[in-house]
Known about the structure:
Ferritin; Ferritin-like_SF; mainly alpha; globular; Rr_diiron-bd_dom
Amino acid sequence: MNFESVDDILAYAIEKEKEAVQFYTELAGKEKFKSVKETFENFAKEEGKHVTLLEGLKTDKGKVEEYELKEIPDLKISNYLVETEYKEGMFMQDILRIAMKREEMAVKLYNDLAQKTKNAEVVRVLNILSQEEAKHKLGLETMYDDFLADNEN
């Protein structure tokens, strides 16, 4: 993967986020259980927020400089889970595992790309993308942990 500019990176990231929206929307359409359907719809909405954020960064480069980078905690739960494919009627913890792994791979991609360039503007954009994915990963890992804790009782 070679990117010539910040616009190339943002275009790639926007496309990936749109793919995620489509992925979760399609899963929501296949799911019979209301709670699982709503979970997928919420995942699609979250990915849609990323599309909006990235499109905003692309049209207003000043937002790249204004964006506040923060340290996002990593529970590392997904790091120890095996990747799986969606099957209709899956248990909620397996659905969350799919979503966590997707976010984990996105964080890794953007971090790896940031390591391979010396262009400060490109590194900043990749760090923004990584942070946004890390936020989703943290939210999903927290949801997964809470779900498992609730179901142990």
